[in-house]
Amino acid sequence: MQRIKLLGGRFLQLDVDISNRLRIAEDPGIVRSASAVIAHSGDSWFWLIGLGLLWWLGTDYWKYRALILAVGVVITALLVILIKFSVRRSRPEGNWGNIYRRTDPHSFPSGHAARAAMLAVVALGLGPAWFGLLLFGWAPLVGLARVAMGVHYLSDILAGMAIGAGMGLVVLLLF
């Protein structure tokens, strides 16, 4: 038991160290600005509004996809919230992303990474291929941007992406 605690402590410290090396939240410049935009691009409200507009204005082909993706966003969010409030890992210290820090002080797993991975898996499964590939390229960038902006640790992102990929497969099986 003592050995497991020691290994767990070393893993967590390595996670913090790697995450701190990837962090650019305090560095001014174009990379930081781009990271902030990409980090926000995975926001659930952004996706739900966009998918709602796509359902409202789109063809039947896109309405079907918008509905499935929106259901996936909601059920993924519920699972992530359940896990977050069970684990209760605090976010890294920092100033960027105060809205996230106030409304959701827990970092594990990353809801943004889970949502991005779920969206990518479902888009790849439903098509069109260009849309799935676009989201598949975007999803890891969201996760890295969340670490870069200091609101998550790398392990939060990896766990979120694994959960999201699994949820994407579940959504595809359901629909």
Descriptive notes:
The structure is a single chain. With 175 residues, the chain is mostly helical. It has helices at 2-22, 30-40, 44-57, 60-87, 98-103, 111-126, 129-148, 154-174. The chain has one domain (2-174). The termini are far apart.
Judged by helices, strands and strand pairing, the structural class is mainly alpha
Query: How many domains comprise the coordinates?
Result: 1
The helix content is over 70%
Report on the biggest sheet: none
Number of strands: 0
Query: Which consecutive residue ranges, at least 5 long each, have pLDDT under 50?
Result: none
Query: What's the helix count?
Result: 8
Q: Average pLDDT, to the nearest integer? A: 90
The coarse overall form would be globular
Order of helices and strands: HHHHHHHH
Proportion of strand residues = under 5%
Q: Give the distance, in angstroms, between the N- and C-terminal Cα atoms.
A: 44 Å
**What is Rg?**
17 Å
What attributes does this structure have?
globular; mainly alpha; about 80% helix
In short:
With 175 residues, the chain is mainly α. The chain has helices at 2-22, 30-40, 44-57, 60-87, 98-103, 111-126, 129-148, 154-174. The chain is globular.
Explain the layout of strands and helices.
Elements: H1 2-22, H2 30-40, H3 44-57, H4 60-87, H5 98-103, H6 111-126, H7 129-148, H8 154-174
Helix pairs in contact: 2-7, 3-4, 4-6, 4-8, 6-7, 6-8, 7-8
